[in-house]
Write a structure and sequence with these properties.
Helix content is 44%, strand content 11%. By secondary structure, it is of the alpha+beta class.
Length: 305
């Protein structure tokens, strides 16, 4: 992946989405042939020359300073996540040098302390994701919630690890799991965009994106927008095949001392039917991730649906 082209495309898409009226320019201009701001207008807003900005957008300049990037972020009205992404993309270009001297990121693994952290969540659904959104680990309820149709031991084998972005676009079970699938899809793509900025030399990340572009027109369309999404808190309505619909909050937090790893915990409002459904899901699965036979579970599913 060429970080300088990612930087150029990001700048172009953000410039096209900023309307002239947003910065006090007239809406109707006979000279205006492109949507959004022209290069000269953005350059003026950011306090840089048009020729310099053009070189930056074309990937011909890798020396953008922090001050210039901050000025561009203000001119483009980027939010905090987009601002950091801009610095990531420009920083990757500055550190480019000879591509043959770069080292790919180290293989990802789960430490014993991370496993202890997972255990501390009890029956709360938890998964740990790597820098490419690979599932590195999950607890019993996390597996049952997100991918009960998959082998619960698959995260233990790097070549078999589920990838949440791949599941969103290529797995029918996951598509049905989210009532607002387009929102989940946008979030998945936006987080992959963040990963590209932070890990431009990860060949497995490049391969994943290539696979999704080849097999999913929906991914390709969203990828072309160059939008980013923060790893923070997201609310979804899920339709689980075992316990039915529920409104949940997925909260992502960095795993201490493990670059790029995030623990995602799923909760529901206290006392709600959604919380009851999560409790039932925990009761309905065995320690090895299989569904309990009805005779082993005194609670019936129909009582919660």
């Amino acid at each position: 992946m060429k970080s300088k082209s990612h930087l150029g495309w990001f700048l172009r898409t953000r410039r096209a989405q900023l309307q002239p009226s947003d910065v006090g320019l007239p809406e109707f201009d006979e000279r205006r042939r492109v949507p959004g701001l022209r290069r000269d207008e953005l350059a003026q807003l950011a306090g840089v020359s048009e020729s310099y900005y053009t070189r930056l957008e074309q990937g011909l300049s890798r020396g953008a300073s922090t001050e210039v990037l901050d000025a561009l972020a203000r001119a483009l009205r980027l939010d905090e996540t987009e601002h950091r992404h801009l610095h990531d993309l420009a920083g990757a270009g500055r550190k480019g040098g000879n591509d043959r001297t770069r080292k790919p990121p180290a293989p990802e693994r789960i430490t014993e302390t991370t496993r202890q952290l997972i255990d501390a969540f009890g029956d709360t659904p938890v998964i740990v994701l790597g820098r490419r959104s690979d599932v590195l680990a999950w607890n019993r309820t996390g597996h049952a919630l997100f991918a009960g149709h998959l082998d619960p031991r698959s995260p233990e084998h790097p070549a078999e690890r589920p990838n949440t972005a791949r599941l969103v676009f290529r797995d029918a079970h996951t598509r049905e799991l989210y009532e607002d699938w387009p929102k989940k899809a946008r979030d998945a793509v936006g987080r992959l965009r963040l990963a590209v900025g932070r890990y431009p030399d990860d060949p497995l990340l490049a391969a994943l994106i290539g696979e999704l572009v080849m097999h999913s027109p929906e991914f390709t369309e969203l990828w072309s927008e160059h939008r980013v999404r923060a790893w923070d808190t997201a609310a979804y309505r899920m339709r689980h095949p075992l316990v039915g619909p529920m409104d949940v909050t997925q909260q992502a937090m960095p795993v201490p001392n493990e670059r790029g790893q995030r623990l995602v915990a799923v909760t529901a409002a206290a006392g709600s039917a959604s919380q009851a459904a999560l409790t039932l899901l925990a009761q309905a699965t065995t320690p090895d991730g299989r569904t309990r036979p009805a005779t082993d579970n005194p609670s019936t599913l129909s009582a919660y649906l």
